Amino acid sequence: MKIKLGLIFGGMSTENEVSVMSANSILKNLDKNKYEIFPIYISKNGKWYQYDNLENIEINKNMDHMNEIENIIKYLQTLDVLFPVLHGLYGEDGTIQGLFEILKKPYVGCGVLASSVGMDKAYTKVIFDKANICQAPYIYLKKYKDQYTYIDKEFNEKRVSLEEAADIVEKEIDFPVFIKPANSGSSVGINKAKNKEDLKEYIEYAGKFDKKILIEKGIIGQEVECAVLGNDDVIASGVGEIKPADEFYSYDAKYQNEDSKTLIPANLDEKVSNEIRKLAIKAFKAIDGKGLSRVDFFVEDKTNQIYINEINTLPGFTKISMYPKLFEAEGIQYNELLDNLIKLAQE
Ligand SMILES: Nc1ncnc2c1ncn2[C@@H]1O[C@H](COP(=O)(O)OP(=O)(O)O)[C@@H](O)[C@H]1O
Ligand SMILES: [Mg+2]
To answer: Ligand 1 mean position to 4 CA, how many Å?
Structure first.
């Protein structure tokens, strides 16, 4: 009997298009002898669609073969395993995982808690601090009407103006700094500021994407990534490196600029690579991860210090994405990786 696999993609986040690219690769590479595949597209405005023709579908380009699903719960209940290929809000943040839990359906990847902790950069920081994993110094702000709330490390709150918020940043961390909406993905809403004027502008800009804003010390060094796989017995891939075409790995550098390069393995000493692999598993376990994650780090040029940047519980999954490429370098082919993830979901 084939496994009825619901491949859910698109989604209501800013990463809808990225998700469609990932889903197309997955669809192409899943073993059709093992799986009966049910692609499900979620539009940006939250409508769910099924496909009536599975031959050569180019997801998202051919609305002809899409029919809106009237009863999502009933539809999902007919499937055996669900594979959310969704990035960002309402897909990678625990909300859809909550729906799957209620339906008692096995699904690929992290559960509710790990997904939401991994999505919210402010709360990822709290867990990584607790796990004693080194990360860039940061300031946490919340937008409050026309002002801001500064939240210290013990969650004490203080109301501040934009100017005062910038003063706090200037006092606590050195430029350059990165300003991020807590719920960003694909670098949307993220900027690098080299002075106070830019800082203020970018805080306001980040506030358009999320009420919660993080400001972090910019780490000057290599940007590296490590993939992890497993539920209880977790393995880590080797380490890969990003060479962004831009000043940092912006949306454009990630998806549009072909001058961005990835390097496998990363240009690092073996000792540093091994440390990163250990930290990747540690970080994954610290957020209670399951299935898969890609854990991103910086290695500072001057000191060789490793800083964790973030954990992505549903990393990009096209054939040329870092996650599958890192495992391919370990001898686990793309289709085998998909089989593994589906097996882990069923466990
Ligand atoms: N503290 C930092 N120091 C140096 N570069 C950073 C820092 N934070 C983010 N960046 C750069 O910005 C990019 C996007 O930030 P990231 O936190 O990874 O957000 P996203 O979740 O959107 O990928 C990173 O890939 C990196 O190039
Ligand atoms: Mg990132």
So the answer is: 37
305 and 232 inside one domain: yes
165 CB under 6 A from ligand 1?
no
Reported as type and span, the H/E element at residue 199 is helix 196-206
Phi, psi of 20, rounded to the nearest 5 degrees? -65, -40
List the domain range (segments joined by +) for residue 37. 3-107
Is residue 97 domain-shared with residue 23, that is, in the same domain?
yes
Q: Which of 162, 196, 217 is the last residue of a domain?
A: 217
Residue 189 alpha carbon, nearest atom of ligand 1: 22
User: Where among 155, 188, 217 does a domain terminate?
Assistant: 217
Task: Give the confidence band of 15 by pLDDT, cuts at 50, 70, 90.
Answer: confident
Separation between Cα atoms, residue 19 and residue 35, nearest integer Å: 20
* 21 and 101 together in one domain: yes
User: Are 61 and 173 part of one and the same domain?
Assistant: no
Residues 6+ apart with CB under 8 A from 345: 81, 82, 83, 106, 107, 108, 109, 291
Q: Judging by DSSP bridges, how do beta strands 235-243 and 261-263 pair with one another? A: antiparallel
Atom 1 of ligand 1 has which residue's CA nearest to it?
A: 218
pLDDT of residue 100 exceeding 80: yes
Ligand nearest to the CA of 298: 1
The CB density around residue 133, as the number of other CB atoms within 10 Å, is: 18
Q: Is 179 in the pocket of ligand 1 (CB under 6 A)?
A: no
Does the beta carbon of 180 sit less than 6 angstroms from any atom of ligand 1? Answer: yes
Q: Rounded to the nearest whole angstrom, what is the distance from the C-alpha of residue 298 to the centroid of ligand 1?
A: 9
pLDDT tens for each residue of 261-304: 999 999 999 999 999 999 999 999 999 999 999 999 999 999 99
